[in-house]
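In this notation, each integer encodes one residue's backbone shape. One such record reads:

___
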Amino acid sequence: MARVLLIEDDVAQRMIASFALRKAGHEVREAPDGEQGLVAARAAPPELVVCDVMMPGISGYEVVAAMRADPVLVNVPVVLLTAMSDRQHMRQGMTAGADDYLTKPYKPAELCEAIQAVLARREAQQKAFIDSMSGMVENALEQQKETLGRQYETRLQREINARWARSMAPGADVRYDHAFVLLADLLGSAVGAEPELAERLKHAQQTALDTFYLFGANHVLPYGSKVIAVFGGESSLTTPVELRAVRAAVALARSAGRERAISLGLHAGPISLVAVNDGLHGDHGQAPVPGDTMNMVTALEETAAASGWRVAVSPAVAGALEERVAFGRRSVTPRGEPAIEVVGLGA
């Protein structure tokens, strides 16, 4: 178990989180805002920090930035807590150096699970570093382990960020041998005047973009009144890709409200995106290549819409999620494959 510093200005939220962490066996110290949290961290460095984003005084982003600038606290992992309304700013927190995040409201078990995952990741990084050393380097490591460990993690983070930037570069063909592909119909069979529908579509697509990127999508592509999100490849996030994909689907479905028609299909398989460039005018973008994965995810979305479901997944996705997701009814797509309803996230 770990020494955890909990920084949360909401008394009720802080009490719930503190109780859950102590029950899980962690040693917990509490701070009501960012300034006091930094003072506490510098006085007795914790093994992990759980920090709210929106607080009076300095924000959670600024807490992370201050820690990453402090040689004593630079390697202390940070899990950020944010409301869904903060989703458009979450990239800022991850860029500042946060290790993971949870959206409010969250279950106590999810908080404990996220902390365990971050701690396990840090332990694995240290072990991989030590195992790779031999001879003189290993002898030097015994004398300078902490310094070299910080340098290793800094290089690793730079490489991950560089690969992310390369994968997101405009105008590049991309191939994923295995990715989780999410197709969301944002308006369904909505009717109305063209200006009204245009405004609704703009708002719905912006919400979808924010939500998918919040949960770590590698690509988000407008698709008429629909949106395609691709989750795959390398990521600095600790939450498994399949769990991030289904969390994104459930979060978008919940944010739409029952009064708005929305249906989502989620499937796992190979997919390619090709560059669509206009060298004369400078426009660029990407488009999915037709294939089994796109056909299947389209059929799943259509099945969800026809069955009155919000989210439909394939057996391949359901098997990867196991007990992490609550499943409901079953049906068959127009192509004849099984489709499974997602009714919520598991405990």
